[in-house]
């Protein structure tokens, strides 16, 4: 087992990474907890809920399960209410602990429920997708979607710990593995050129979930994310680089309807678009743009953006938390391994968006 530490003003906690972590969850529950509610979805529950509940029974605490419907389309206010309803009906108090067992959808929604129930109760992240293990379980962004924009209703709220069990990825569909790898290569692009090159060399092993490659990718991703959020928990500056590819990606997700493209697929494609915009705005060299495109394709994510129509693209992108005073701002790459955050000239942006129309998916 390896441990990566996250230290923010909102909370300090360990990320434990290793095989078999599901069986050791009892150690992560505080002694003074009055009850534990495992928040999960129907798919993950079928695989892992019994095992997790057996592990948590070792605490001797009152235990309940809240099972949500599965899918990005359910990351909304109605589903959030199912959690509040269950917590209130069962009279869980302020010393109850929520356990988010699932991918990023369960983690984000459970985290927001924890942030808001009785003005805040503790929660533990137990991520079960690659994407959640390398990204969403770390750093305390919690949210639900709004029909008009992705993650628009949420809070910064840190978990008390993250338990990453690498073994659970064995049941993950291949398409979800590809989506998770998009966020892995993101770290290389924004902050660690050597890690990007390592991903290029190990892409086949990663897609096959070879344990050594997988363990390295998860640990390095968590280290890099922990470094960034420990310096800027609330995205007042530096943290925005973690949003590389997301201005385009979130527009794809909300424009096509949540769940049509997976988050990681939309981010993968969005990173190719952001690399093209970096070429136009900052002179990122053509060979680097092609490296981005080639690796996104090699992990199994789409590289051709959908044709949403240029003005609709721009409308959708306006609903972005990085927009200020109506001005869109982008995370761009002067070179692989380094990111900056700035507005982009409209002509350059339109040229990138028009490629979605000229090369239909
Ligand atoms: N908070 C953050 O910092 C952050 C970062 C990245 C993404 N996100 C959010 O995370 C969400 C995407 O998360 P995701 O990619 O994990 O999707 P997801 O949560 O929808 O999970 C993907 C699918 O895999 C299933 N699944 C989960 N674990 C499984 C397992 N071990 N075996 C078999 N099936 C399993 C799920 O039931 C689901 O059908 C998006 O809503 C995105 O906005 C948040
Ligand atoms: O942790 C962050 O900061 C990120 O931006 C990570 C992203 O991968 C993630 O998708 C996040 O939820 C996007 O945040 P948002 O503020 O654009 O909703
Ligand atoms: Zn993301």
TrEMBL record:
Tell me which residues make up the 3-dehydroquinate synthase C-terminal domain: 180-323
Question: Any one Gene Ontology biological process term?
Answer: amino acid biosynthetic process
**Highest taxon, organism lineage:** Bacteria
CDD domains on file: DHQS
Q: Tell me the NCBIfam families matching this sequence.
A: aroB
HAMAP family assigned to the protein according to its UniProt record, in alphabetical order: DHQ_synthase
What's the protein here called? 3-dehydroquinate synthase
Its lineage reads: Bacteria, Pseudomonadati, Pseudomonadota, Betaproteobacteria, Burkholderiales
The gene name reads aroB
């Amino acid at each position: 087992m390896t441990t990566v530490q996250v230290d923010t003003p909102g909370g300090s906690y360990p990320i434990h990474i290793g095989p078999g972590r599901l069986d050791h969850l009892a150690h992560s529950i505080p002694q003074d907890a009055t009850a534990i509610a495992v928040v999960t979805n129907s798919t993950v529950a079928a695989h892992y809920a019994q095992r997790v509940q057996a592990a948590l029974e070792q605490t001797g605490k009152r235990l309940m399960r809240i099972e949500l419907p599965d899918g990005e389309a359910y990351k909304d206010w109605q589903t959030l209410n199912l959690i509040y309803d269950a917590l209130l009906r069962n009279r869980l108090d302020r010393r109850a602990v929520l356990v988010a067992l699932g991918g990023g959808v369960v983690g984000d929604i459970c985290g927001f429920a924890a942030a808001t129930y009785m003005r805040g109760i503790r929660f533990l992240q137990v991520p079960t997708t690659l994407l959640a293990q390398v990204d969403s379980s770390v750093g305390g962004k919690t949210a639900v979607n709004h029909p008009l924009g992705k993650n628009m209703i949420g809070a910064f709220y840190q978990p008390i710990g993250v338990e990453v069990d690498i073994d659970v990825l064995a049941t993950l569909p291949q398409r979800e593995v590809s989506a998770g790898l998009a966020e892995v290569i993101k770290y290389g692009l924004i902050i660690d050129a050597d890690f990007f090159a390592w991903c290029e060399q190990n892409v086949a092993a990663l897609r096959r979930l070879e344990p050594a490659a997988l363990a390295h990718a998860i640990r390095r991703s968590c280290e890099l994310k922990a470094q960034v959020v420990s310096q800027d928990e609330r995205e007042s500056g530096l943290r925005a680089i973690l949003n590389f590819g997301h201005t385009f990606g979130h527009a794809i997700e909300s424009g096509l309807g949540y769940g049509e493209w997976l988050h990681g697929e939309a981010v993968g494609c969005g990173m190719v678009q952001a690399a093209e915009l970096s070429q136009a705005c900052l002179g990122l060299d053509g060979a680097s743009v092609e490296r981005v495109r080639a690796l996104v394709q090699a992990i199994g994510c789409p590289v051709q953006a959908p044709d949403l129509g240029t003005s609709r693209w721009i409308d959708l992108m306006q609903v972005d938390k990085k927009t200020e005073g109506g001005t869109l701002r982008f995370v761009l790459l002067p070179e692989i391994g380094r990111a900056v955050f700035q507005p982009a000239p409209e002509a350059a942006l339109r040229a990138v968006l028009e490629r979605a129309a000229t090369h239909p998916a």
